[in-house]
Amino acid sequence: MDRKEITIALAGNPNSGKTTVFNNLTGARQQVGNWPGVTVERKEGRHNYLGYNIRVVDLPGVYSLTAYAPDEVIARNFIVDQKPDAVVDIIDASNLERNLYLTVQIMEMGVPLIIALNMMDMAEAKSHKIDIKALAQETGAPVVPMVASRNQGTEELLREIIKLTDTDSSNPFRMYYGQEIENEITKLEEIISKNHPSNKYPPRWLAIKLLEEDEEILKKFQEADDCLTKRS
Ligand SMILES: Nc1nc2c(ncn2[C@@H]2O[C@H](COP(=O)(O)OP(=O)(O)O)[C@@H](O)[C@H]2O)c(=O)[nH]1
Ligand SMILES: [Mg+2]
Questions:
Q1: Which of 5, 17, 69, 179 has the most CB atoms less than 10 A away?
Q2: 17: Cβ below 6 Å to ligand 1?
Q3: Cα 21 to ligand 2 centroid, rounded to whole Å
Q4: Which mutation among 10, 15, 32, 122 tests ligand 1's pocket best, with the greatest number of atoms within 8 A of CB?
Q5: Separation between Cα atoms, residue 178 and residue 183, nearest integer Å
Q6: Is the Cβ atom of 45 under 6 angstroms away from ligand 1?
Q7: One-character DSSP codes across 36-53
Q8: For ligand 1, mutation pick of 20, 96, 98, 117 (most atoms within 8 Å of CB)
Q9: Could you tell me the pTM of the whole model?
Q10: Per the CATH hierarchy, to which homologous superfamily does domain 4-167 belong?
């Protein structure tokens, strides 16, 4: 039987349980190497589920997706360049607020996202009550509670992965930055869409990165000798 191949990327803060989830998903079917040009470990594995051959890529553990750390650049370049069918963001439920910082950054890239709410046992031990429905509503992403160290939630995660890639929906989430900044984002977005219609990066994400003076993105525009980086 021909299986449909899909690629998912595992993202998350260090110690959120990424490797544990990766192992639960891929078992012994793993390949370990390095990301090109750097000594950061790259792990990839596979899992056959229903009619799907799911390729699972473990991204470096990061707290954000800026241009300042090689790990973060690897993670975000994989997401924009390889366009995985879904990004699974693994969150430590017992440190929800800190972990959601990365979640928002992934959401801003407009990729299909699933939130794996891991370490539910730790959250319960700390008596944290998490409104899973509200989290799903606010983020527009399916939320799967998990205890990866006990292999709990793996099946549910697989189901959500298939469901999401079948419906082929990018995350419509928009972080609202206040009217003044939104006006500037809109202006930049229009210029970007007009001058770089084929750019693989989402225009809104590029506009936000330009306003943040993200070094990597500024460099890309400078190399293109672009009007966007010329100061008046
Ligand atoms: N209590 C608890 N521990 C977990 C859970 N998932 C992973 N761990 C443990 O947390 C530690 C870090 O997990 P690891 O998968 O290496 O995290 P990574 O840095 O994100 O790859 C390990 O000791 C895991 O056994 C969980 O759901 N509950
Ligand atoms: Mg790890």
A1: 17
A2: yes
A3: 9
A4: 15
A5: 9
A6: no
A7: TTS--EEEEEEEEETTEE
A8: 20
A9: 0.90
A10: P-loop containing nucleotide triphosphate hydrolases (3.40.50.300)
- Written as tens digits, the pLDDT of the chain (232 aa) is 678 999 999 999 999 999 999 999 998 778 888 988 788 889 999 999 999 999 999 999 999 998 888 999 999 999 988 999 999 999 999 999 999 999 999 999 889 999 999 999 999 999 999 999 999 999 999 999 999 999 999 999 999 999 998 886 666 678 889 999 999 999 999 999 998 877 778 889 999 999 999 998 898 888 876 777 765 4
Residue 86 DSSP symbol: E
Ligand 2 centre from 23 Cα, in Å? 10
**What ranges do the domains of the chain cover?**
4-167, 179-229
Q: Please state the atom number of ligand 1 nearest to the C-alpha of residue 12.
A: 20
Report the alpha-carbon distance of residue 11 to residue 99 in Å, rounded. 11
What is the identity of the amino acid at 159? R
From the CB of 20, is ligand 1 less than 6 Å away? yes
